[in-house]
Each structure stands twice: as structure tokens, then as C-alpha cells.
Amino acid sequence: MSNYQPKPEHKFTFGLWTVGNPGGDAFGQAVRAKLSPVEIVRVLAEVGAYGVNLHDNDLVPIDATPGERDRIVAEFKQALQETGIGVPMATTNLFGDPVFRDGAFTANDPQVRAYALQKTMRAIDLGVELGAQVYVFWGGREGVESDASKNPLDAGKRFRDALNFLCEYARDQKYDLKFALEAKPNEPRGDIYLPTTGAMLGFIATLDHPEMVGVNPEMAHEQMAGLNFMHAVAQAWDAGKLFHIDLNDQNFCRYDQDFRFGSHNWKQSFFLVKFLEDVGYAGSRHFDAHAYRTEDAEGVKDFARGCMRTYLILKAKAAQFNADPEIQALLAEIHADDAGVAPLLGAYSREKAGALKQHAFNRIALGNRGMQYERLDQLVFDLLMGVR
Ligand code: GLT
Ligand code: MN
Ligand code: MN
Questions:
Q1: 246 CB under 6 A from ligand 1?
Q2: Model pTM score
Q3: Superfamily assignment of 2-319 in CATH?
Q4: Confidence band of 103 (pLDDT split at 50, 70, 90)
Q5: What ranges do the domains of the chain cover?
Q6: 3-class SS shares of the chain: helix, strand, coil, % to 5
Q7: Ligand 1 in reach of 136 Cβ (< 6 A)
């Protein structure tokens, strides 16, 4: 057990909305007492987390007066100072209030779009005041139920205009802040625009300041769409855009379950952790999940401890994979270069193209080769199950 204790260098974070989730759902009321932000910070310190993330209204109610805001923020800062918990990421609630029933930045009503900008600028100020260096945009309501209501090209332009405006705002304020866009295919809207991390990456290239903007891929959101999360993360990493990550779990193609990290897809979770550790991802490991509705306050702590413990166990398993002589020998064989063909691969040259066109391949022999992936995959299973 002591091997898997969370430490600050692991950068484990939770949102106020995650450990503070009182367990209500679309069919039933809350089952746990609502914790204040200060109480949540104390819980996170108790379980060994490094940081807390928040939406503006997780901390400051939407209708708070400026005086109330300042008092709440001061009390929260005091709790942060006492516990050593930091705020690495902040975001805006652009989905809870009825004003956002048709979206925020993409809403058809220009007043709503302007209000969303105002709310986000104020929330950015709050996040920066608390020390956040990453600012997440999850466009939960940026979508439609009926395509009769909105043209996706208009929606895309409005979303782009809003992000361009907010990038300029952050630059104008001299904030040391990066934006991270979080995709989700549906829920709460029937369809949400830019539904996958891959779609977000394509969109970022169309912005005025693409260097300021990356992604915050969420495991469960890609799984809702039936996708391989680690592949999405790898693409984001390759593009230099992995600014943040939301870790959780769920069954494929279901509603947004937001289960404890590692609770369902052990193998996928393993390869994800292995990827993050192998490439040296240095950002927060944010658990955007919540405890089962069956849990009480102690169960919420079990949930939070479980997310971190599972990550650390999988990290140890990844190190074991990388050091396992049989696995590594097999991989060396599988990945071996072929001196005969090496000069024909790589960057284009006219000579190379000519030589390649002439080269005689033994297609039948190549097609008959076994790959040994069955053996390799079983070794992974044995390793994960602890029988290796
Ligand atoms: C909401 C959503 C999450 C987002 C959060 C940030 S809020 O809980 O389900 O995936 O990351 O806005
Ligand atoms: Mn989710
Ligand atoms: Mn998320």
C-alpha cells in the first residue's frame, strides 16, 4: 500500500464538482450532503491530492454580489494556503444556468453570446487570481437537438470568434495562461459540436493564436464515441497540444458515466498511463469523475484515493512492462529494422522512388509471417493480473 501513496509530484487533481458531487442524477435527487468549497479542499488534502480545479460558480454563486465574491474567495484562498493545495486549472460554467439552454458562444441569441464572453472574462480573472495556468473550455451546451435551429458553419464561426476574443483578452491582461478545449460527442445536448479531440485539434489550427490553445481530452468522452482514448491523447501529444487531461472511466457508448479511473477498462487505462509516463507528460492528472451514487462521505474518499492508487499501480505496471526481459525481447523482434529495405524508406528522393519501384518483394512470404501479438498480449494480461 505504502508504495502507492500519492505525492505532490504526481500532480493528481480533482474538480470541486467531482469530489463535491452530491450524487443527484436525471432520475433521482442528491444522496450526499453538499460540501462547501473549503470542506472539499480539506477532503482533498486528507486523501493526498495535489490540486483542485473549479468552475467559477463551483466557488462563487452566479448571483453573488461583489462583496460576497471577495469574502468567498478570501476564505477559499485561506484554505488553500493552510492545506498547500493549488489551483492548476479553472473553467467557466457555461451550461448550468437556463440562460445557456441554447449554448453560450454558439447560442443563436447575440445577447447570450455577449453574456458568455463577459462571464468567461470574469471567470478567467478569478482563475488567474487563484494561480491557474490552464483554462478549460468544455462546450457542453454548444450544440443542437435539431439541425433546423442552427447552421454548424455559423456555430463554428461563433465559437472561433469567441476563442479569438478571449485569447486577445488573456494576452492584453498579460496572463500566463493556456486554453485547453475539451470535446464530448453528446449530453447534455443531443449533439455537441466538435465532438472528439481530433475535431478539436483540427479546429485549433483555424484560430488566430493557435499556439495558446490545446486540448483537454477526457477518457470517458472518447469512450462514449467508441474511440480509443490513448490514440486521441497520442495525437494531441504529437501535435504539442496535450495541455491537460481528464481521467475517468466508463463503459463504451453509454451515457456520461464519469466513473473512478480504472474502474472499467483496465487494459486501456494501463496503456494510457504507460503512454503518459513514457513520453514524460508533465501536466496535471485530473480525475474528472465522481463516486458511485451508492456512496456516503467516506465512500467519496475511497473513490478519490482509488483514482490515484490505480494510476500509481498502472504506472508501476508500465515500468514493469518496460523492464520485462521476455516482453522486451519480443518487442525488439517485432520492431526490428530490415537492413535490406531500410535505404528504400524515409524521406523521398527521385532515386529512392526509382529503386523502390524496381525492388522485388516476396509478397507471399511477407503475407505468411506470424506476428506473435497473441503471445505479447497474453504477457500483458499476465502482467496486469499480477501473475508475472
Ligand atoms: C462537466 C463535464 C466535464 C467537464 C467539466 C468542465 S464540467 O462535469 O462533464 O467533462 O470537464 O467544464
Ligand atoms: Mn464526463
Ligand atoms: Mn471533463
A1: yes
A2: 0.97
A3: Divalent-metal-dependent TIM barrel enzymes (3.20.20.150)
A4: very high
A5: 2-319, 325-384
A6: 50, 10, 40
A7: yes
